[in-house]
C-alpha cells in the first residue's frame, strides 16, 4: 500500500503524465512509496470518488478551473493547488513533489 | 498602451467573461460529453480507411469480395452515430456534474432526440427519377437505367401505384440524422435535457418511495417524472412542427442553424480566427487548444463527418461539397506538434541553441512534440507572456491555416478525407491518414515553415538567455 496518493490533472492528462514519471523518479530517489498519477479534468469527480487521492495538483494551463475544482476537492476534504508554471515547464519532478509533500505535511 | 497594462487589460477584462462562458454548465457538458463520442469516431475511422483503401487494385478487390460493404457497416454504426453519442454524452455529463444518477438522463436525451425527428426515409425511387436523378446502378457501380428512363417507366403505372412507390419508407430511423447532420440538434437537446432533468430533480419532482423499497428499485422511479415530462414536451414539439410546419425540429435546426454555422467555420476567416485564438489564449497561460476545441468541435466534427461520407461514397471533392476546415484541420494542422506549431523551436533548441535553458528544454520537449504535446515549451521557455517569442507563436498557426486552406482550395492537395486520427498522432503519419500522401508532404512543408518562422526569433531569445546566464555565472564567481 502506498503511503500517499497524489493526483495530477490537466486538460487530457497527457502532459501531466510526463511530469508524473519525473515525480515518481524523484520519489524513488527519496525512498518514498507514493502513488502518483495523471488524469483529465473531466475525470476528477470519478477519481475523487474511487481512487480517493490525498492531494490534487492542477496543471497551470487549466488554472482557470481552479475555483470550480476547489469546490470538489473541498467536498472530498483534500487539499489542492496549481503547479508552479516554471516547475511545470521544466518538468521539475523533484520540486513539484516537495511542494506536494509540504502541503500534505502542513495539513497532517 | 504599454505591454503590462495591455496584459492586465486582457487578464482582468477579456479573459474572465470568456472563462465564465467556457465554464458554464452547458459548455462543460458539451466539452466533456463529446469525449464519449471520440473512441467511436476514431475506431470508425479505421473502418472508413479499410473500406476505402487508397490503392485502386486493393480497393476494387475489397469491393468485389463484399468486404468493403462490411467495413462500411462497422463505420456507419460507430462514427456514423456521432449525434447519438453526443446527445447521450452531453445530457449524461450535465446531470452527473449536478450530482444525480446520470445514465437515465442520457437515455432520456436519446429518446427525445429520436422523438423530434421523422422516423422515415425518402424512397430511393424519388432520388433516382428525372433528369437530375441518379438513375439505377448495379452492384459494380455502372448505370443500368438513367433517371429519365426511370421516370418514363414509372409514369406508365397507375397513379395510385406511382404515389405508393414514391412515398417515404416509414417506421425506420433515418441514419442521416444520427450522423453529422443531427449534430447541432443533438447538442442543443443534450444540454436542454441535462438542464431540465437536473432542475426537476432539484425541485424535488420525483416519486418518493417508502424506505423499505430497495435503493435500486427506488432509483428507477427517480427518473420517471423528469423523463416523463421531457418526453411529453418533446412529443408536443414534434406534433407542432409536423402539423403546423410540416417539418421536424431536426431539419429546422439543420437548415436554420447548422448549415450557416458550418459554413462560417469552414470559411477562410473562420480558420484564421481559430488559428489565432489558440496561441492567444495560451499567451495568457490558459489552455487555448482546449477552449477552442470545446467551442469549435460541435461545428468542425460535422464538417469532418460530411467529408467522411463523401469519401465513403467515393466522391470526395470540393465540388461535391467537401469542407476545407474540418476537425482534423484543427487537430492536425493548427495544433500540429502542439499549440503554436512549435516544432521549429524544438529544432532550434536541439541544433542551434547555446543557452543552457533552451538546450535542456529541447531535450525534454523532443519526444512530447512528436505527439503534439508542448507544455514544456509553453511553460518552460516560456511561451506564456513572453514578448520575445510572441510574434512567431501567433504568426505560425495563422500562416499555416492560411496556406493549408489555400492549397486545398486550389486543389493542389485534396480535401481532408474525414478520417479522424487521434490528436496525439505524430505529424506526417497523421497527414497520411487524414488526407493521403499529398497531405503527408504538405505536413512536412508545414514543419519546415514553422522552423523558418521561429528561427530568427528563437536566436534572439537564445542570445538574451545566454547573456543572462553568463552574467549570473560572472556574479557568482566574483
TrEMBL record, chain A:
<keyword id="KW-0762">Sugar transport</keyword>
<dbReference type="GO" id="GO:0016301">
    <property type="term" value="F:kinase activity"/>
</dbReference>
<dbReference type="InterPro" id="IPR051819">
    <property type="entry name" value="PTS_sugar-specific_EIIB"/>
</dbReference>
<keyword id="KW-0418">Kinase</keyword>
<dbReference type="GO" id="GO:0008982">
    <property type="term" value="F:protein-N(PI)-phosphohistidine-sugar phosphotransferase activity"/>
</dbReference>
<dbReference type="GO" id="GO:0009401">
    <property type="term" value="P:phosphoenolpyruvate-dependent sugar phosphotransferase system"/>
</dbReference>
<feature type="modified residue" description="Phosphocysteine; by EIIA">
    <location>
        <position position="10"/>
    </location>
</feature>
<dbReference type="InterPro" id="IPR036095">
    <property type="entry name" value="PTS_EIIB-like_sf"/>
</dbReference>
<dbReference type="InterPro" id="IPR013012">
    <property type="entry name" value="PTS_EIIB_3"/>
</dbReference>
<keyword id="KW-0597">Phosphoprotein</keyword>
<dbReference type="Pfam" id="PF02302">
    <property type="entry name" value="PTS_IIB"/>
</dbReference>
<protein>
    <submittedName>
        <fullName>Cellobiose PTS, EIIB</fullName>
    </submittedName>
</protein>
<keyword id="KW-0813">Transport</keyword>
<keyword id="KW-0808">Transferase</keyword>
<keyword id="KW-0598">Phosphotransferase system</keyword>
<feature type="domain" description="PTS EIIB type-3">
    <location>
        <begin position="3"/>
        <end position="108"/>
    </location>
</feature>
<dbReference type="InterPro" id="IPR003501">
    <property type="entry name" value="PTS_EIIB_2/3"/>
</dbReference>
